[in-house]
Design a protein that fits this description.
Blueprint (H helix, E strand, L loop, with lengths): L1 H24 L8 E2 L12 E3 L5 E3 L7 E7 L6 H16 L6 E7 L7 H9 L6 E3 L3 H10 L4 E4 L8 E4 L3 E4 L5 E5 L5 H14 L1
Parallel strand pairs: 4-5, 5-6
Antiparallel strand pairs: 1-10, 2-3, 4-9, 7-8, 9-10
Helix pairs in contact: 2-5
Bound molecules: nickel (II) ion.
The site of nickel (II) ion has 5 residues, from α2.
């Protein structure tokens, strides 16, 4: 019986992984720094999370402003800091238009990333960067809506874990709908240019 359960669990994981790859494989077909999603794939949705002051915020709290959303974690050794530096650079490049954009960092490691930890971390990049955490369930919900993959991994000979996570930057419009996605490694000026273009188009 136990073996059946174990195999079913493995099967379920395999199915989920294939589904995830199927959704994202279209993304890599996008041209340049912006990625495109296959038609009909919904990204984003309602969430309830906690900000760095310990206040509850929802997706509606950001409505009316553009949102630049990134998922990661403060212990991330390389990718997250690089991406957040690009986000900060894009805010600088936007000049006065930056007032219409809220950069948001959502942790995929709620066990370690408390409001206080996030508060210190986001300040390292930009005062305007909003750090959000939540219960593991709240994080799982928002990650699912944004099609974010994340998983705990413990390297050999290590007592602490890392988080494996997908790395896209999401531009959401003032209506909360996805406008475009940026691939990992997009420069701050390319991000700013794309935001400006999208703002002019709306
Ligand atoms: Ni990271």
């Amino acid at each position: 019986m136990l073996r059946i359960i174990r195999w079913s669990a493995l099967g379920l994981i395999a199915v989920l992984l294939v589904a995830w790859v199927a959704v994202w494989s279209g993304v890599f077909g996008g041209s340049g720094s912006q990625a495109s999603l296959p038609g009909g794939v919904q990204v984003g949705g309602p969430f309830t999370l906690t900000d760095t002051r310990g206040q509850t915020v929802t997706d509606a709290s950001f409505r009316g402003n553009w949102m630049l959303v990134y998922f990661g974690y403060t212990y991330c050794p390389d990718v997250c800091p690089t991406e957040l530096q690009a986000v900060a650079a894009s805010m600088d490049k936007l000049g006065p238009l930056a007032a219409k954009v809220t950069p948001v960092f959502i942790t995929v490691d709620p066990d370690r990333d408390t409001s206080a930890t996030l508060s210190e971390y986001v300040k390292l990049f930009d005062d305007r960067l909003v750090g959000l955490t939540g219960t593991p369930q709240q994080i799982a919900t928002v990650a699912k809506e944004y099609r974010v993959y994340y998983a705990k991994v413990t390297p050999k000979d290590s007592s602490t874990y890392l988080m494996d996570h997908s790395s896209f930057l999401y531009l959401m419009g003032p209506d909360g709908q996805l406008r475009t996605l940026f691939k990992q490694g997009t420069s701050g000026s390319d991000i700013a240019d794309a935001i400006r273009t999208r703002m002019n188009a709306s």
